[in-house]
Design goal:
20 helices
Length: 587
């Protein structure tokens, strides 16, 4: 299903003219070796371009012949490779292997270009025939960029300042070479297309996933007996027959997946997982809207007002127009999460829905998160990365959320399913460790208990703002703790250690032990207040204590502790409101 969706995406991109044709790929290139028609190296052309607003230079993406998958062997690419293959020099300290690399490149280019009637082709072959790797380091044309070239930068050829891979005769020779190689491949029925064709023995390397192999990792591979089927054990053609995917389909899914991973505007990282997403018809505006709605967008892509209007209409099933591009809520939309795993990629999740259905699930998630905010927090939703950061100790060395939990949260949001219990547990852990119920943590607890109804927290404790009518004991105790804390800070301005510092966690976990002590302490604090404030707080405490109709529990379970935290948070935010509805200042 994943490969089929990716291949369909390739076909949609090809129909729009937005992707490389089979046999070609986009590769980051740093330098061009400029030859004359006799194959002599005249100069080096830098190919880097400015990125990040002109802050640094990065290799330029160039469409070149498809790159082979390299492991530990010596295998050359055609017309685009590093200095080991094209110059016979590098800084790897293995001169014998480097010589083999150069000879492999020479053989491949002779095999491919021998019959090409092109001055550019003849110049490349003359270069390989005349170049002497043993004296390459002294060549004056290389001097300026030698150190960077030897570190593994990708190189291409040009002849008289024209790129060789753009020459018509060279391109034809490359296509003929690919067809000849495919003729020797095993033939089978492709699991993706259902058609007979040459089966790919090795699948393409997917490059760019954070923390995966720099040379690329496999989505599909068989390199040990445990992964192989009977009759297909490690044979030259049997390796790919374990899961027969045609060379055409393998190229397509590899090309679009590499394109998605390289798209910095739309790939998102949640924990260790790279999240990519696309619409079935390949219209990029769907990605823009989804990125902004799900992960928190950039104002230059779409304004918050336009985003809100677009999401509202799409969720209702109405087509919308975004910056002149029509979006259909019934268009199929896909979300794929990939995580590094040794030399492979693990699929964290693969989700499919209509675009409107996907956005409806996202909107429902943000509606559940909606809770009163402190005045210093700007309007808007709690984006996913901030939500996950609430579960992390920001003083630790590793500031990433748990990868399995992060993946489960994304799945829950996009499928409108229950949140993972680990989300609530990690949030509660951070509250206990820091004794701080932040806006984000309160929002998480509210959303979690609204969706995970088996924890039986009443909806009266899960409102956006304070519910002064709720008699749910944990919620009332959280409110009462906030009031007692406020009494202490009002009676003792600038106090170093408050009851929150000393008793917050124990009051939440073991209220029967702590609240009698806190009530007793509050009496001494109340005596320090003047008549108006004293009466105000005494009435508030009396009202809350009057809502307690049962014996305080010796120990509260996690769900009740979460309700306690919400009651505490709601009451604190009520204190910090600038004015109540009647225009009177709150204490």
């Amino acid at each position: 299903m994943i490969l089929q969706a990716l291949c369909n995406y390739y076909d949609a991109l090809a129909k729009r003219g937005d992707i490389t044709p089979p046999g070609w790929s986009m590769v980051k290139v740093s330098f061009a070796l400029n030859l004359d028609e006799q194959g002599n190296l005249h100069e080096i052309f830098p190919m880097k371009v400015m990125a990040d607003g002109g802050k640094k230079e990065v290799p330029q993406s160039v469409q070149v012949p498809e790159q082979v998958k390299k492991a530990s062997g010596v295998v050359s690419n055609f017309l685009c490779d590093n200095s080991s293959y094209f110059l016979g020099i590098d800084n790897k300290g293995k001169p014998e292997r480097t010589v083999k690399c150069f000879e492999a490149a020479k053989a491949l280019h002779h095999e491919t270009l021998e019959n090409a009637a092109s001055p550019a082709a003849r110049a490349v072959l003359a270069f390989f025939d005349s170049w002497r790797p043993e004296s390459a380091a002294e060549d004056p044309a290389l001097a300026k960029y030698l150190d960077e070239i030897m570190k593994g930068a990708n190189l291409i050829f040009s002849v008289n300042s024209m790129f060789v891979h753009e020459d018509a005769a060279v391109r034809t020779a490359w296509e003929d070479h690919r067809a000849a190689v495919s003729e020797g491949s095993a033939v089978g029925r492709c699991l993706v297309t259902g058609r007979l064709g040459s089966v790919a023995r090795l699948h393409p390397a997917i490059k760019g996933v954070r923390d995966s192999q720099p040379t690329g990792a496999s989505l599909v591979s068989f390199n040990a007996p445990a992964f192989e089927s009977y009759g297909h054990e490690g044979k030259e053609t049997g390796q790919g027959m374990n899961s027969p995917v045609s060379e055409e389909a393998a190229f397509k899914y590899g090309a679009v997946l590499n394109r998605l991973i390289a798209d910095r505007e739309h790939v998102q990282y949640i924990g260790d997982t790279a999240v990519v997403y696309w619409a079935e018809d390949a219209e990029p505006k769907y990605q823009d809207v989804f990125s902004c709605a799900m992960f928190g967008g950039q104002s230059e892509i779409i304004t918050n007002t336009d985003l809100s209007d677009a999401v509202t209409n799409l969720v209702r099933g109405n087509p919308v127009d975004v910056n002149g591009i029509p979006l259909d809520p019934e268009n199929n939309f896909y979300v794929l999460g990939l995580a590094p795993n040794a030399a492979r990629l693990s699929v964290r999740f693969f989700l499919q829905n209509t675009f409107g259905g996907m956005l409806a699930n996202v909107q429902a998630h943000y509606d559940r998160l909606n809770i009163v905010k402190p005045a210093y927090i700007a309007n808007g939703s709690l984006p996913l990365w901030k939500l996950l950061n609430e579960t992390v100790n920001l003083n630790s060395r590793d500031k990433k959320a748990s990868p399995p939990m992060a993946g489960a949260v994304v799945r829950a949001v996009l499928t409108d399913g229950p949140y993972p219990v680990s989300l609530m547990e990690q949030t509660m852990l951070r509250i206990r460790a820091e004794q701080n119920v932040t806006y984000g943590r309160a929002a998480i607890l509210k959303a979690f208990f609204l969706k995970n109804s088996e924890f039986k927290v009443p909806e009266g404790a899960l409102r956006v703002e304070l519910n002064e009518e709720s008699s749910h004991l944990p919620y009332v105790l959280g409110r009462l703790f906030a009031v007692l804390e406020r009494v202490q800070s009002t009676a003792n301005p600038g106090i170093n250690a408050t009851i929150k510092d000393k008793y917050f966690n124990s009051a939440c976990a073991t209220p029967a032990t702590i609240f009698p002590l806190l009530t007793k302490l509050s009496q001494s604090h109340l005596r320090k207040l003047d008549g108006g404030l004293k009466t105000y707080f005494e009435k508030m405490i009396g009202d809350l204590e009057g809502r307690i109709h049962e014996t305080l529990p010796a120990r509260m379970p996690l769900a009740d502790q979460g309700s306690f935290h919400l009651g505490y948070y709601h009451q604190v935010q009520k204190f910090f409101e600038k004015k109540d509805k009647g225009g009177n200042e709150n204490v």
